[in-house]
Amino acid sequence: MTGAGLPNGASSRHNSGLPSAESLRDVLSPLAAITNERDALYMEILTKPEEISDIAFGFMGSKALFAALHHNVFTHLSGDAMTAAELSRACGLHTDRCNTLLTALAGLGLVSVDDGKFANSPAAEAFLVKGAKYDFGDYLRLQVDRQMYRLLDQIDLALSDDLPEDATSSYADWFSDAEEARIYSESQHAGSLGPARGLAKSIDLSGARHLVDVGGGTGAFSITLCKAFPNLKATVVEFPNVAALGERYVAEAGLSERISYIHENAIEAKWPTGVDVVLMSYLFSGVDGELHKNLIARAFDGLAPGGQILIHDFIVEADRTGPKNAALWQLQHTAFTPRARSLDAGWLADALSAAGFKDVSVEPMIPGMTMLARGVKPA
Ligand SMILES: C[S@@+](CC[C@H](N)C(=O)[O-])C[C@H]1O[C@@H](n2cnc3c(N)ncnc32)[C@H](O)[C@@H]1O
Q1: Of ligand 1's atoms, which has the minimum distance to the CA of residue 170?
Q2: Residues 90-99: pLDDT tens digits?
Q3: 151, CA 20 to 30 Å: which among 159, 307, 372, 375?
Q4: Å from CA of 173 to ligand 1 middle
Q5: CB 292 within 8 A of CB 342
Q6: 118 membership: H or E segment, kind and range
Q7: Maximum distance among all alpha carbons in the chain?
C-alpha cells in the first residue's frame, strides 16, 4: 500500500509539484482521517451473502447515526456514561425508543455498553459531539441526511433518464430555492475549510495575483487562499443565492476588497481573463459531463501564460477500481444531475494535456474521496 492508501502502481501518473497525500492528510477534513486504510477505500470483490447484506442494510446504520445526531445523543453522552432512562430524559425521547436507538448504535460500535450504561466510542466523542474540534455531525445531519440522501431517492429514474419535470435535476434547479442553498452551502463551507487549508499549505501561489474560483460556493477556498497569499485577489462565479451568502462570509473574513462575486450560472457567465489560477472545486461532479472539455478549454483561454488550472473533485482511478467513496459520491450526484459523468484520473490527465496544459498531475487530495488535477499553461 502506498501512503495515500492507493494500491501499489495505481496511484496517479504524473507527479509534478504537488504534495503527496501524506503531507496533506494532517490538515485535511476529519473524513480523511477516518478513511485512510486501503481496505476502507477500495472495494474488495465479494464472495458471501452476508457481505451483500452489509451493503443492503448499511442504510439502516446511516439512519441510526443521523437519528442520534438529530437527538443530540453523542453530545449528551459526552464525558458521561448513561443508562437509556437517563439519556431519554436528557434527549426528550421515550425510554423504550431511546433504548432501541442506543442498542442500534451499540451494534454499530458508535457507543459502547457496560452494565446497562452507554458511552460514546472514541470516534463518536472526537467527531460527533457538538463543539468538539473535529465535529462534523452537522455536515452529516444536514447536507448528507436531509439533502443528499433525499435526492438519492431519485436515482432509479435519473439512471434511466426519466426524472419527472418537478424533480431536482441540476444544482441550478436545487439552489433556486434560497433555503436549500443556505443549508447546503453552510455545511459545504465547513467541510471545505480543511481541504482549502491543506491546499494553501501545499501550493505556492505567492507569485499569483488573480484567482478565478468557478462554482466556488461561499468562498472556503478563495478566503483561505487569499489569507495565505496576501498578494492574491479572487473572483468567485456562483449562482445568485449562493453568491449572496458567500459575500457575507467574505465580509466576515475582512476580504471584501479582494474577493468579489459574479452572481451567475458559471456555464453562461463570462469569466475574468488574463488570470493566474482557475480553480474548480467540486464543479465537474455536478455538471453535464459533456461540458468538462469546454470548462477546461475556457480555463485555458482565461489563464495568462504560466497560469495554472486546479481541478479538485471526486475522481476515480483510470482503471475504475475505486476509491469506493469517490465512486459513490459520483453516483450520488447523478441522482440530481443525471448527465453528470464519473470522472477518472486518466481521462482528466489526457484532457488537460490535449487542451494544451503542461506539467499535468492528478493526485489524491482527501484520501479515498477526492483528487486534485493540476496543469500549467505554457509561458
Ligand atoms: C460541492 S459545492 C463546492 C463549493 C466550493 N467549490 C468548495 O469546494 O467548497 C459545488 C458548488 O458548485 C456550484 N455550482 C454547480 N454548478 C454551477 C454552475 N453551473 N454555475 C455556478 N456554480 C455552480 C454550486 O452552487 C455549489 O456551490
Answers
A1: 16
A2: 999 999 999 9
A3: 372
A4: 13
A5: no
A6: strand 117-120
A7: 69
